[in-house]
Amino acid sequence: MTNIVVLVKQVPDTYSERKLTETDHTLDRESADAVLDEINERAVEEALKIKEAGEGEVTVLCVGPDRATDAIRKALSMGADKAVHVSDEALHGSDLVATSRVIAAAIGKLDSVDLVIAGNEASDGRGGAVPAVVAELLGLPQLTHAHHLAVEGSTVKVDRETADEGITHLEANLPALVSVTEKINEPRYPSFKGIMAAKKKPVETYTVADLGIDAGEVGLTNAWSAVQSASPKPPRQAGERVEDDGEGGTKIAEYLVGQKLV
Amino acid sequence: MAEVLVLVDQVDGEVKKSTYELLTAARTLGEPAAVVVGAPGTAGKVKESLAAYGAAKVYVAESDDATTYLATPKVDALATLAEQVSPAAVLVSATSEGKEVSGRLAARLGSGLLGDAVGVNADGTVEQSVFGGAFNVTSKSAKGTPVISVRPGSIDAEQASGAAAEEAVELPAVDPAKSAKISGFEPVVGGDRPDLTEASVVVSGGRGVGSADKFDVVEQLADALGAAVGASRAAVDSGYYPAQFQVGQTGKTVSPQLYVALGISGAIQHRAGMQTSKTIVAVNKDSEAPIFEIADFGVVGDLFNVAPQLTEAVNQRKG
Ligand SMILES: Cc1cc2nc3c(=O)[nH]c(=O)nc-3n(C[C@H](O)[C@H](O)[C@H](O)COP(=O)(O)OP(=O)(O)OC[C@H]3O[C@@H](n4cnc5c(N)ncnc54)[C@H](O)[C@@H]3O)c2cc1C
Ligand SMILES: Nc1ncnc2c1ncn2[C@@H]1O[C@H](COP(=O)(O)O)[C@@H](O)[C@H]1O
């Protein structure tokens, strides 16, 4: 029996325009459509594969505003068994370390977790550090950026693949934390049956106080780093455009010479 | 002057360029102290080059565990030193592992984390560029020793001489129940072209290139321009080019003097990784392709006609 927790995040759809709010420089979540981060669908898929290969239970854990329930339902409709949703006004504007603390505390509420699976990097913040920080806080081995994952008995093996390092073969004993890359699998689509079943699956909701965390330790005013100013860059303007009349390559060369780029 | 700890990024004794960028940035905040975490004998190989970029001190944390466990030996070394010397800041490259090490360190020290900085100011604030360069942000740390990760390629490395005085650091034993063991490593083979994040010219190919074989059209133009080769996610997913060359939101962020996009539509996620390039040139068959909205010079045409002609013209000019 493997108990797996999958960390899922709701993010603004990258296809829609993303903005910072003018008042407090936090992500303007209302201006964009919100979706379950694509990388987290892959994390759920990987958990379901482990469950289906043996025995296990998959719990999804999400820290985010009320409307993140849509993202949770999506994960449940793919086949996860239950969910934990930490939602609290006090969390607005929390930084990476505070968010990781909340996640770690929520995982601590669950019994005997064998494996935590996260995405390697959320598409909204490019943080790429929440999984490592959660491993730090829980004292779990960190097997991050997995493009291949295998659980054999009580050991977990991962091929870590990053663009700056190459491939690193990692192994550890359970319990452990894994983060997956976008190359690990193709996530399944929820079936109609899955969508109907998800409506009845249990979702437990916690506030930060329920987790034993003081509201004064999280949120924007208590963030350990603060944005002082933010300004949108002026958008790029389209420049010159020509049809290729057989001389397109030569025209680019002339342009580059004019710009002293060659 | 307070010390500024700089985590040295090195592979088998070869220092990565991003480390020199960190040492340069560290000088705006205090006195750079390089921290070498590696197998026994590593510091001897890297000391001279660290001295050439102004490292006043070189802290040496060497052990066999340092290379056989992921991330934690580096966090241990930096945390130990941060407590001993109360540095003005700790600087780490914002690579995949560097982001993880800096996050863990900030959590362990109870410090503010400033991630993916593109500039470090003398008052301790940093510049960040978010949403693929759509916003510029200035941030500061509000608690403890600031832990700053700096995006590779965003600061110009400048030489300066440093004493590089060595000092040994004792690493705590690794607890295998809390760390992942490295059982093998296959480094990225760089080849002869410049590194993507460091190159001043990048030529990228997309789905429009059509196959792995035909990617040599992209490579030939890159070689004529002395450029690095990049690829869109669609090109990577279709197996035309290896994943390490992906440019975009989930790939690398590049900001070269010149970016040439061949057969790339210019989806928002691709733009997120290249739209801060100084000059953008695009070739695409489709005059409606969004890449043209941000291109300084665009040619509507078949890349298989346009790119070889451009390669030829550049080669001729070089004589
Ligand atoms: C969460 C998420 C993250 C993502 N991250 C990234 C990322 O990091 N990087 C990235 O690139 N994408 C990323 N994407 C994918 C992105 O949305 C696009 O699908 C991708 O960038 C498209 O690649 P492309 O432009 O090569 O392909 P297409 O969109 O298929 O465009 C191919 C273009 O080639 C042109 N063409 C075809 N033949 C020729 C020819 N002979 N000559 C000239 N032009 C020709 C066509 O007109 C077309 O415009 C991400 C998507 C998501 C959802
Ligand atoms: N608020 C959150 N709730 C649940 N999981 C999260 C949250 N933030 C980040 N994660 C997890 O951490 C991964 C990496 O996120 P990040 O470090 O923010 O780039 C995500 O793919 C999620 O799996």
From TrEMBL, chain A:
Keywords: Electron transport, Transport. InterPro entries: ETF_a/b_N (IPR014730), ETF_b (IPR012255), ETF_beta_N (IPR033948), Rossmann-like_a/b/a_fold (IPR014729). GO terms for molecular function: electron transfer activity. The keyword Hydrolase does not apply. GO terms for cellular component: cytosol. Residues 24-215 form the Electron transfer flavoprotein alpha/beta-subunit N-terminal domain. Its cofactor is FAD. Residues 227-249 are annotated as: Disordered. Heterodimer of an alpha and a beta subunit. PANTHER family: ELECTRON TRANSFER FLAVOPROTEIN BETA-SUBUNIT (PTHR21294), ELECTRON TRANSFER FLAVOPROTEIN SUBUNIT BETA (PTHR21294:SF8). The electron transfer flavoprotein serves as a specific electron acceptor for other dehydrogenases. It transfers the electrons to the main respiratory chain via ETF-ubiquinone oxidoreductase (ETF dehydrogenase). Belongs to the ETF beta-subunit/FixA family. This is Electron transfer flavoprotein subunit beta.
Automatic annotation (TrEMBL), chain B:
SUPFAM superfamilies: Adenine nucleotide alpha hydrolases-like (SSF52402), DHS-like NAD/FAD-binding domain (SSF52467). One of its GO terms (molecular function) is electron transfer activity. The keyword Repressor does not apply. FAD binds at residues 207, 232-233, 246-250, 263-270, 284. Pfam families: ETF, ETF_alpha. Residues 4-187 form the Electron transfer flavoprotein alpha/beta-subunit N-terminal domain. InterPro entries: DHS-like_NAD/FAD-binding_dom, ETF_a/b_N, ETF_a/FixB, ETF_alpha_N, ETF_asu_C, ETF_asu_C_CS, Rossmann-like_a/b/a_fold. Its cofactor is FAD. Keywords: Electron transport, FAD, Flavoprotein, Transport. Binds 1 FAD per dimer. GO terms for biological process: fatty acid beta-oxidation using acyl-CoA dehydrogenase. PANTHER family: ELECTRON TRANSFER FLAVOPROTEIN ALPHA, ELECTRON TRANSFER FLAVOPROTEIN SUBUNIT ALPHA, MITOCHONDRIAL. Heterodimer of an alpha and a beta subunit. Belongs to the ETF alpha-subunit/FixB family. The electron transfer flavoprotein serves as a specific electron acceptor for other dehydrogenases. It transfers the electrons to the main respiratory chain via ETF-ubiquinone oxidoreductase (ETF dehydrogenase). This is Electron transfer flavoprotein alpha subunit apoprotein. It comes from Haloechinothrix alba.
